[in-house]
Predict the 3D structure of the following.
Amino acid sequence: MPDSIDILKIFIEDRFVGRMVLSPERLCVFEYDPEFLSTGFSISPFYLPLRSGIFTARREPFNGLFGVFNDSLPDGWGNLLIYRYLTSKGIRPQSLSVLDRLSIVGSSGMGAIQYKPDNHISTSHDINDFDILATEIEKILSEVDYTESLEVLAKKGG
């Protein structure tokens, strides 16, 4: 994982939407790209209406992140895999900001939104056999020598 992310760029299908930074209070601050403003749409009508200016997320309910971007973050299982993957690489997961976590989602998330820099987990090794995957998942859950397949499972999101 590279250095901590200062500016996260937001895209939808390779179209630049805007950028996001963290305020000193650790709240996300978002601004639409001027070109997207002229031809785009609101990605969150209540909290990110399509207009110029800077938008600051509320602390609650998403701990300083806008809901539209919070939806991109992994669920509990995905978080467990990423936590163990980062730990196996000598990275303290607690040290990552929400921008760092969104960069791990990068272009591999479930929705249309993509994040750059893109630091999603990639591997040249792959497992497509469900029986093997099930065995590897059991290892993760029982915390028994799971490091061999951890990259693959984290890449697949579980």
User: Anything to note?
Assistant: The chain has a mean pLDDT of 85. The first strand starts at residue 8 and ends at 12. The beta strands are 8-12, 15-22, 28-32, 54-56, 113-116.
